[in-house]
Amino acid sequence: MAKQDRAIRTRRTILEAAAAVFDERGYDAATITEILTRAEVTKGALYFHFASKEDLALAVIDAQLTETPALPEPLVTSRMQQLVDMGLIFAHRLRTDPLLRGSVRLTLEHGSTPLNRSGPFHGWSQVHSRVLAEGKERGEVLPHVVPADTAELIVGAYAGINIMSQVVTGRADLERRAISLYEHVMPSVAVPSVLARLDMAPGRGARALAEAERLRADETTGPAPTPAPVGVG
Predict the structure, then answer these.
(1) Residues annotated as DNA-binding region (predicted)?
(2) Which of 7, 85, 99, 209 has the fewest CB atoms within 10 Å, i.e. is most exposed?
(3) How far apart (Å, rounded) are the C-alpha atoms in residues 158 and 162?
């Protein structure tokens, strides 16, 4: 068990180091030597977990979906709020999570090496389509909305504002751009009663993520015990 835990930690260390290097340099300019130096592991340890630089890059790309935390059900007030929260949490995490930044850099860049970068686009489209379909079943979505089409529109538009924000401000204004996207799109998607209750205020992504992490911690450790009443006399 100790060896297995150590192997998991080593793989994670390599993945995070590679993501940081890919984010800074892009795939073509990144080198295994620099990743090894950043991760402080041996070449043998790296190649035990990843067969090549391409294999490592694909693992970083896949992490965009596999490392994204699901919102606990108690936090999901509506499927349309869940849809908005996915994008706002993503914007917040891009400012704080090096693994996610490396994954996004690899997904959106156009280097000379033909990496398969389609996974996150397909994955996010499927997630959005499922949430929209569930929202439609619950009466949260307008009748004309086709979940798969709307999902691809949102994912594609989000990729566009992500690139623009990175180029213009280094993603300093990504949250504002994401909020603007949802303010323009959601009136054409959500029924008025649901639309009126959507929280798209600045800071929503950070608040929702913090609450999700708190709920997951409570599920793992259990709620704190209720203090015993103080006796009188």
Answers:
(1) 31-50
(2) 7
(3) 6
